[in-house]
Amino acid sequence: MEGAFSALHEASIYSWAVPCYDDDDDDDDDDDERVDEGEREEGEVEEEGEEEEVEEEEEGEEGEEGEEEEEVEEEEDIKEEEDIKEEENNNNNKQKQKKEKDENIEKKNNEEKIKKIDQAAAAAAAAAATAAAAAAAAAKTAAASGVPGSGAASIAATEYTPTAPQPPASAAAKTAAAAAAAAAAAAAAGTPSCRHTGPSPLHDNNTPHLGYRNINLIDRGGDESHVTDYAPTQSAVSSAAAAAAAAAAAAAANAAALEHLPSREGGLLKKRTEAEQQQQQQQHIEQQQQQQQQHIEQQQQHIQQQQQQQHIQQQQHHQHIQQQQHHQHIQQQQQQQHIQQQQQQHIHQQQQQHIHQQQQQHIQQQQQQQEEE
Looking at the DSSP assignment, which residues form a beta bridge with residue 260? Predict the structure, then answer.
């Protein structure tokens, strides 16, 4: 009997069969449910407060991150402006140095050209003086030998000799001109028509010079006594006069080829003509304009490249911000899901605890009833 009773008792416990309930038990259960509902509402209120605090903290963090990003962008803009200004200053300094270098080169070239002009002028003056001296010597030799017209050549040679100091180019030109005139006079005085100094036994058509007929006689072995009638210095006079005339003409041409134009240094520019000088100046101006245009185009290209780089950087920064925002949004969703899961787990645990408590109470009640019976 006792074994059967214990078996029935165990079966009733594990099958959750409740034969009867008291009113007191119902009241206790209602009170427990009210307490559980109150605790559940309080837990929900606390969880809502915690969620609001988490959201406020996240919003504060987002605001701080936005301010930091704005400060970083402002610093980058300021740095880019400083880099642009520094590059412009460097370009200006390079242009200034290049301009100074070009001016120094041009000045050096002008000085070298002036030096060459001075040397050429001095050489022309020396050549002209030599030619004038040769012409004067030739004229004196002709006068000593009795050549008519030699006095005028000597006077011309002495009258055109420069005595007062003059600027190099003008002195050379005038000296060359005077030497050319003296040489021309000496050459005119030394022509064969004026070289006769005595009667000739053989003459053609009563002319005092060696005629074509007499030359033919000499070629055929005829009488050559008339050749001695000419002074031996007459050929030397003619040769000296011709050489002096040629040297004077060359010196005059060289001196005339040099143009004396006042320069900013106060010296002489070695420009042949004003047209060439103006042409060179125009070419120099065009080159400067081309260089300036190229520099402007390079600056514009550099500015465009910088603008493109800035635009690309802004796009990249915007994309990075969007990615960060998307990542933050995903993290927020994950956090919310995790919080919901925790809440559900907490509710499920509370429900299990409540069921377990009810089971314990029910077991205790059954044990009490059995003991009473």
Answer: 270
- pLDDT digits 0-9 by tens, 115-158: 887 787 777 777 777 777 777 776 676 556 554 444 444 444 44
271's CB contacts (< 8 A; 6+ apart) are 259, 261, 277, 280
Question: For residues 175 and 132, is the Cβ–Cβ distance under 8 A?
Answer: yes
Which pTM does this prediction carry? 0.26
- Could you read off the pLDDT of 210-245 as tens digits, one per residue? 444 444 444 444 444 444 444 444 444 455 555 666
Angle separating helix axes 150-159 and 168-189, nearest 10 degrees: 180
**271 three-state secondary structure:** strand
**Dihedral sign of CA atoms 129, 133, 139, 143 in order:** positive
Partners of 235 in beta bridges: none
Alpha-carbon gap, residue 230 to 216, rounded angstroms: 18
SS3 244: helix
Contact call for residues 140 and 154 (beta carbons, < 8 A): yes
What's the token pair of residue 18? 């409740």
Residue 323 is inside which H or E element, if any?
helix 274-372
**Which secondary-structure segment (H or E) carries 40?**
helix 23-144
Instruction: Specify burial of residue 203 (Cβ count, 10 A radius: 0-12, 13-18, 19+).
Output: middle
d(CA 159, CA 362): 160
